[in-house]
Amino acid sequence: MSGAGLLACDEPLATRYDLALVDLDGVAYRGHEPIDGAAEGLDAARAAGMRVVFVTNNASREPEQVADQLVGLGIPTAPHEVMTAAQAAAELLATRVPPGSPVLVVGGAGLLTAVRAKGYEVVGSADDGPVAVVQGFAPELGWAQLAEAAYAVQRGAWHVASNLDLSLPTARGFAPGNGSLVGAVRAATGVEPASAGKPSPTMYRLAVERAGARAPLVVGDRLDTDLAGARSGDIPGLHVLTGVSSARDDVLAVPGERPHFIGADLLSLLEPHPAPVAEGGWWACRGAAARVVGGALELRPHGGTEGRLDLVRAACAAAWDAADRGTPVDAAGVPEL
């Protein structure tokens, strides 16, 4: 797949792609609340033949717990349809650390299970001589656990993070994520950790291999993790506007974080996605159009909900083209779309 622009799909995404790699927070649910259209969109996508694997940077919970939560929100899910950052972190450990080695786990039950499943001896202190520290988010983590991680890393243990997300979306807003807690260990040791979670494509590749998919599609709400992982893994990515990153963020996205498709929510799996085309100095998407003149983004909207998405697509095409030609759009003039 070449280029860093939007792709065109003249049929529903659910019939073009055989596997959806779906993020959780901000896509399927927000905190403990469902997101409108999520259950309906996934049900219909599955009915059209698309399989689903939920791929999450959350490493604190077991796949069974994640599946139970989704079932409770009206989204039928089996544990094997969940791929967590804990599983990816254990796979990353296995690339350098022999089974049976002592590993200090700083995280929740999901991380403990994943590390033990790979055959490692889990230890609780830097004094136990761990050869690696694997760190994932858990709400109960405190200073004592972070200090043990720092002591072990200072003594030469390999520091592996399940993910580096600085924030974690909750029903009340954004809370510190695993990246913020990893940052405390990094600040104390000066050692940069390896990361298994998004934007690394490790989890996507594991999920694709497990499913035997030929045409996967990443679905996420964050450009810097979900969509960056799609780009780095050379997998098409759908950005749904129900979570962290906004349509304005799409317009201003750097090449490595740009989505291939943009939709309002998971119902957009059931829709075709037009790509803008260059027409007389404008980038047009059906009735909407945009261009960049002297660094200023100019918009020509088209009415209706569909028209608003087309305007976002046209604005992205215009802004990305200008940036790639060396004349980026003035961010101050880009409105909230």
TrEMBL record:
Keywords: Hydrolase
Database matches in SUPFAM superfamilies: HAD-like (SSF56784)
An annotated Gene Ontology molecular function: phosphatase activity
Gene3D superfamilies reported in the protein's UniProt record: HAD superfamily/HAD-like
Pfam families referenced in this protein's UniProt entry, alphabetically: GNAT_like, Hydrolase_6, Hydrolase_like
InterPro entries: GNAT-like, HAD-like_sf, HAD-SF_hydro_IIA, HAD_sf
Domain GCN5-related N-acetyltransferase-like: 285-332
GO CC, alphabetical: cytoplasm
Signal peptide boundaries: none
NCBIfam families per UniProt: HAD-SF-IIA
Protein name listed in UniProt: HAD-IIA family hydrolase
